[in-house]
Amino acid sequence: MPPTMTSPLSVSTAATPRATTTHLSIDGVSKRFGSFTALDNIALEIQEGEFVCFLGPSGCGKTTLLRTIAGLTRQSAGRLTQRGKDISMLPPQARDFGIVFQSYALFPNLTVFNNVAYGLRNRRVERARINDRVAELLALVNLTGSEAKYPAALSGGQQQRVALARALATEPGLLLLDEPLSALDARVRGHLRSQIKALQARLGVTTIMVTHDQEEALTMADRIVVMNHGVIEQVGTPAAIYHQPASAFVASFIGSMNFLEVTAQANRQALLGNTPCACLPHTIAVGQAAQLAIRPEAVALSLQARALKHQAGALNGEVVSIEFLGAFQRVTLRLPEDHQTLIADVPSRDSSKLSLYVGQLLAIHLPAEAARLYAAGSSQQ
Ligand SMILES: Nc1ncnc2c1ncn2[C@@H]1O[C@H](COP(=O)(O)OP(=O)(O)OP(=O)(O)O)[C@@H](O)[C@H]1O
């Protein structure tokens, strides 16, 4: 299985806020469409003020879960509680949330001012208060001065900022974001990502964002809910999801990962061909086929391969390609063990010491603390 290749990621290391009050509880929520199960017994608690991302591949059920929270889709089973109140059967208009969709969904025939004021007018808020609140919200999303413009006169990023202001206008307890950045080009997306994150931190509004973009989730979320085939695979901080993936699926979905075919051994070990490799504690039976997962940046390369070549327990490989990626070089090695391949990311400042070239034989070190064993054939993407 070739390793999943994506660019290196900056993982948000911000600690989960010390929020201890539950904002939203999802208890045993399932959703079936005919005989198809889109959500299977989902259980999740979201804390007051948290920024949570639902992350997963297309069709995993993340939008269905968001829509269920909003009341736009009715669950087939289970219960939703918001701030202690059972909202399971409430229609969307009786629930406390603001929502931003992927496509801007602004009213095209209303000005920016009137789009943002819409929810406030529906609630019969008095005119002077509406004027103040719209001014405050437009300042918050850096669109002061755009009050009289129509959506068609705004860029995609500006339209999404108006949509955000509109969603926040009535001060909802919960902000729902359904892939709000995916229709925007990369530069605007990056900029808006940090704006939304800063705004959320400033307002402290509990936020759930659906995304299929791992980088977005890793950089924005306090906690990530990784979903696959209608179930939650793992819930954790970005750092925990990245460094301690709970399943082969999570390991392969987030960041780049090598998967080597090995045989499980006792005492935190696995056999790669005949070469013993130390790894983290595992629960796979001795002698069972397994996958050893290790990130490319954790693989260490050195020059003593020839000396080690015939030494028991030494792992070496031949360089088959070198890609220059700026901050690091991505080196693909062929291992003598069953001709498997391994990717190593070598920081550019270290690569000169290795004088890398195709055909070179290098010693490989797989640090045990970065090597995780999963059952062979366990779900990847
Ligand atoms: N109204 C519906 N009727 C039938 N099937 C549906 C309906 N809505 C969603 N599904 C199915 O449920 C599954 C989950 O859909 P959902 O939209 O939640 O996925 P997703 O993870 O948000 O994916 P994407 O990123 O592609 O939007 C999909 O297989 C989808 O085809």
CATH class designation of the largest domain = Alpha Beta
Q: In CATH, what is the homologous superfamily of the largest domain?
A: P-loop containing nucleotide triphosphate hydrolases
What's the gyration radius in Å?
A: 25 Å
Question: SS-based structural class?
Answer: alpha+beta
Count of individual helical segments? 10
What is the CATH topology assignment of the largest domain? Rossmann fold
List the strand order in the largest sheet. Answer: 6-7-8-3-9-10
Overall strand count:
20
CATH architecture of the largest domain: 3-Layer(aba) Sandwich
Any ligands, ions or cofactors bound here, and which? adenosine-5'-triphosphate
Question: Average pLDDT across residues?
Answer: 89
Order of helices and strands: EEEHEEEHHHEHEHEEHHEEEEEHEEEHEE
Helix content: 10-25%
* Biggest pleated sheet: 6 strands, mixed
Contiguous uncertain segments of 5+ residues? 1-10, 12-17
The tally of domains stands at 2
Keywords:
25% helix; translocase; 381 residues; ATP hydrolysis activity; Rossmann fold; 6-stranded mixed β-sheet; Putative 2-aminoethylphosphonate ABC transporter ATP-binding protein; alpha+beta; binds adenosine-5'-triphosphate; AAA+_ATPase; OB fold (Dihydrolipoamide Acetyltransferase, E2P)
How would you describe what is shown here?
This protein is an alpha+beta fold and 381 residues long. It has two domains: 22-250, 3-Layer(aba) Sandwich (Rossmann fold); 251-375, Beta Barrel (OB fold (Dihydrolipoamide Acetyltransferase, E2P)), CATH 2.40.50. 25% of the residues lie in helices and 32% in strands. It has helices at 62-70, 112-122, 127-140, 156-168, 186-203, 214-220, 238-243, 248-253, 305-308, 348-354; strands at 22-33, 36-47, 51-55, 77-82, 85-86, 97-100, 174-178, 206-211, 223-228, 231-236, 258-265, 269-272, 275-278, 289-294, 300-302, 316-324, 328-334, 341-347, 361-365, 372-375. The strands form four sheets. It has a six-stranded mixed sheet with strand order 6-7-8-3-9-10, with helices on both faces. Helix 2 (112-122) packs across helix 3 (127-140) and helix 3 packs across helix 4 (156-168). The chain starts with 21 loop residues before the first strand and ends in a 6-residue tail after the last strand. Residues 1-10 and 12-17 have low confidence and may be disordered. The protein binds adenosine-5'-triphosphate. Adenosine-5'-triphosphate binds next to strand 2 and helix 1. Keywords: ATP-binding, Cell inner membrane, Cell membrane, Membrane, Nucleotide-binding, Translocase, Transport. Residues 24-254 form the ABC transporter domain. One of its GO terms (biological process) is quaternary ammonium group transport. One of its GO terms (cellular component) is ATP-binding cassette (ABC) transporter complex. GO terms for molecular function: ATP binding; ATP hydrolysis activity; transmembrane transporter activity.
